Amino acid sequence: MIAIKKELEKLTKEALGELGVETDVVHMEHPVDLAMGDYSTNVAMVYSKQFGQNPKELAEKIVERIKFTGTESLEKVEVAGAGFINFYLSKKFFEENLGTVLKAGDKYGSNENLKGKKIMVEYTDPNPFKQFHIGHLMSNTIGESIARIINFSGAEVKRAIYQGDVGIHVAKTIYSLMDDVSLREKFEEFRNSSVKNVTDLGLRIGLLGQAYALGDKKYNDDVEVKKQIVRINKKIYDKSDEEINSFYEVGKKWSLNFFEVIYDKLGMKPIVDSKDIDSRKHFDFYYLESNTGVLGKKIVEEYLEKGVFEKSEGAIIFSEEKSSLHTRVFVNSEDLPTYEAKELGLAQIKFEEYQYDKSIVITGNEVDGYFQVLLKAMEFIYPELAKKTKHISHGMLRLPEGKMSSRTGNVQGAIELLGEVEKVVEKKFKESKDISVVNQVVLSAIKYSVLRSASGKDIIFDFDKSVSVEGNSGPYLQYTYARAKSVIEKAHQENIKSWLSDNQLLDEEITEVEKLLYRFPEIVERAGEEYEPHYIATYLFELAQTFNSFYGNNKIADKTDKNAPYKVALTEAVAQIIKNGLNLLGIESPERL
RNA sequence: GUCCUUAUGGUGAAAUGGAUAUCACAACGGUCUUCGGAACCGUCGUUGGGGGUUCGAAUCCCUCUAAGGACACCA
After folding, report:
1. Measured between alpha carbons, how far is A455 from A492 in angstroms, rounded to an integer?
2. What angle do CA A343, A395, A285 make, to 5 degrees?
3. Please, are residues A361 and A391 in contact by the beta-carbon 8 Å criterion?
4. CB distance A11 to A67 below 8 Å
5. Contact present, A520 and A581 (Cβ < 8 Å)
């Protein structure tokens, strides 16, 4: 809780107390317009009925009783509109806050609301042997941002990833690798040579992709092949066929290693930083369906006896009577665990490895219905874990050309999308020859497009708008940061010192920029409470706009202006907050574009 | 058919039950020989329909309409 907000709530409560109202809840918010003050409360409207007088009169009475004269932070308190009480903070407050921002630096905006809490965040979840598509990219973007935000709120955060290394998609790939002569030859060649770099790895991933496409086609076209693939699938589960095992292990390793390359590209910070392609890691916990399946099936069988599940048509199901939702199959009639059973196993394994206070799972919203059923089943089996589990879902990332689907084969790869955006960025930022900066702009364009609106709804990715520095975009924020940095640099050259917190009070108006700075910590808190990164994105854009307007109307690095040190300090604070905020979105802040 | 989600200017979005619904893009017009013009300022235009709750509704409830998703062995 932000100190000043708490103080205003306390003052209001005391005033209400004098009028005979005891309450714990004083709703304190920011007025829609900066000109209406810095904080506002609606208590007069809430209690006017109880007092039998009109809200404005009651508001006046409350204001008379608010003792703010002893508070340097408060300039004035006014009644406005239908009975709002508006608080105006003082120049002194804004000055002090500016000092706080500069002093806190990279830590500004952090809080300790989740101090001591252990939180596991599962996200991304690509499947080995399949493409890392833009849906995974979206999940990774949201998950990484949420992980950073709750970490900034003081929690210990562990990143987890859950990958489908078994299932029919794997069998399709293995089938083609074994059955198709040229694919098989290529596979043997790759298997017998070492993987020295990313390019080598990429070639192998290409081969797996071809094999999957071929297997998928034959599975749908040829009934006999379908039967074979189903047999292979079963053997992958029980590991009974050595030849299949060998194809499987090699392909899985290539796939998993390639995903690590992608996490690098997406800007994740490695947890194990190694040049060795086999040991580089970006997540704290890696979970595989091949492991959760075994345990999940055991759990289902155990609770079948206890009456949670029941047999039906050769499968084990969780009936709609139990869930009051809809019936789902947990172990299919082939005696294999479905995703549902695997998830039960996963929950147990996760908690055994890490005694979390909260387990967050981020997925696409097409599994919302399924997840509700799953949580119901979990309530029967581990009620305490069910309570700690939070499912967050997101919509689809759609490209202008059309809809992305992993089932129809019309898949949009994440790498391909990055490449396309890079082309647009390079065209636009011709001068920038620094490849790492280009990458940072590419990622900010994509990530910001995802994070700027509330999660849950589909995002239509617009190449031009996402890269444009003229609208509400990641690159716009990066540009504003770079410009602020450039102004600060200029001030240094002009020998203008930045204002320090012990400096004297300057007789000057309160700028709109200042009125936004102190709100950042509140925004971070709310984003953390609601697992909603978009609050940060929205705020940063407003801050950047306000700063750019200030920049357009004021000369900042002006030696002849006695207020220049203060303006430079404001610029520094804006830059700092943009950097901190972008970091929470998983976006870098290059000093030059 | 049942259940879930969604519906805000031409387009994409924001809004903790609060004040005159806020931005961006597009369109139109303007500023200034610039600390990074990749700027700034302005004009235009919006809560799907109908009821209800409330001092107050984009937000909560009911209903209709439309779109998307889930609804037994995929994940």
Report:
1. 42
2. 35
3. yes
4. yes
5. yes
pLDDT at A238 over 90: no
Pairwise CA distance, residues A306 & A320, whole Å: 17
Q: Give the single-character DSSP code of A268.
A: P
CA of A83 to C1' of B21 (A): 19
Residue type, A336: L
Interatomic separation, CA of residue A582 and C1' of nucleotide B28, rounded (Å) = 34
Q: How large is the ipTM?
A: 0.94
Q: What's the pLDDT tens digit per position in A416-441?
A: 899 989 888 888 776 666 888 899 99
Separation of alpha carbons A408 and A413, rounded Å: 14
Banded model confidence at residue A402, pLDDT cuts 50, 70, 90 = very low
Tell me how far apart the 2 most distant CA atoms of chain A are, in Å: 89
Tokens of A362: 């981020």
Q: Which two tokens stand for residue A517?
A: 């700075």
* A315-318, strands of its sheet edge to edge: A310-312, A315-318, A328-331
Give the fold, CATH level 3, of A432-584.
Isoleucyl-tRNA Synthetase; Domain 1 (1.10.730)
- How far is Cα A150 from Cα A117, in angstroms, rounded to an integer? 10
* Residue closest to A241 by CA, chosen among A174, A193, A341, A340: A174
**For residues A397-421, average pLDDT:** 67
User: Dihedrals φ, ψ of A203, to 5°?
Assistant: -60, -40
Q: How far is the CA of A516 from the C1' of B32 (A)?
A: 27
Question: Which run of H or E residues covers position A451?
Answer: helix A435-451
How far, in Å, is the CA of A93 from the C1' of nucleotide B5? 44
- The matching CATH number, chosen from 3.40.47.10, 1.20.1250.20, 3.30.470.20, 3.30.1360.70, for A3-89 is 3.30.1360.70
Tens digits of residue pLDDT in A348-377: 999 999 999 999 999 999 999 999 999 999
Q: Which nucleotide shows the minimum CA-to-C1' distance to residue A127?
A: B75
- Overall pTM surpassing 0.90 (yes/no): yes
In strand B, the nucleotides that come within 7 Å of a protein beta carbon are: 3-6, 12-16, 18-26, 35-36, 38-41, 55-56, 69-75
Q: How far apart are CA A245 and CA A229, in angstroms?
A: 14
Domain boundaries, chain A: 3-89, 168-258, 432-584
Query: Could you give the 3-state DSSP secondary structure of residue A148?
Result: helix
